[in-house]
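Field log, afternoon session.

UNIT: design team B
ACTIVITY: writing a sequence onto a fixed backbone
BACKBONE:
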């Protein structure tokens, strides 16, 4: 829907960009001084970036769909929400052990973020695979909602 409506825009894309900045500064004039680049150029950049994002969306959509399905299958393997934390910690420790010094703080943060994103998406899929249990809140079955499976707090 996003992509098809974006296609319908066609040659009206510059008009959209112009209208966007008009709406934006209308809502909050204090934002205007943040844009130091020539506004005509900024509008072109905005339109280009928006096009890029809209065209990349199907890939992301597919990835999320596959990851949710993977999470839903894991319910069938007997995996519980809390196990994601254990697996994540095991993965990070294994990476640290094998990579040694090159597994620095920034690398650890990046892996934590990446794992948490995947795990949260899988937990979303898991939650929809067992909606009644989630709704009634059966104990020991806490699913998504925990935004930090592994605290991103190195050291
Ligand atoms: C980033 C998170 C994870 C990824 C990417 C992942 C990936 C996979 C994949 C690709 C499979 C093969 C079967 C399938 O595609 O459905 C699988 C199976 C399995 N996973 Fe995971 N998994 C993750 C987290 C977990 C967690 C947290 C547990 C809990 C201990 C777990 C336990 C299992 C088990 C028990 C199986 C079935 C193994 C078997 O058939 O013997 N996984 N996983």
């Amino acid at each position: 829907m996003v992509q098809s409506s974006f296609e319908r825009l066609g040659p009206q894309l510059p008009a959209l960009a112009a209208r966007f900045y008009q709406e934006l500064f209308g809502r909050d004039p204090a934002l205007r001084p943040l844009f130091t680049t020539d506004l005509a150029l900024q509008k072109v950049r905005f339109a280009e970036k928006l096009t890029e994002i809209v065209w990349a969306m199907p890939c992301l959509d597919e990835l999320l769909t596959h990851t949710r399905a993977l999470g839903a299958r894991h319910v069938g393997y007997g995996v519980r929400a809390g196990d994601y934390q254990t697996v994540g910690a095991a993965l990070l420790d294994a990476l640290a052990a094998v990579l040694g010094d090159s597994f620095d703080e920034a690398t650890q943060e990046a892996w934590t973020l990446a794992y948490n994103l995947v795990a949260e998406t899988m937990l979303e899929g898991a939650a929809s695979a067992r909606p009644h249990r989630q709704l009634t809140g059966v104990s020991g079955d806490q699913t998504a909602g925990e935004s930090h499976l592994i605290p991103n707090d190195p050291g």
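LOG NOTE: Residues 134-146 have pLDDT under 50 and may be disordered.
NEXT ACTIVITY: expression trials, pending approval
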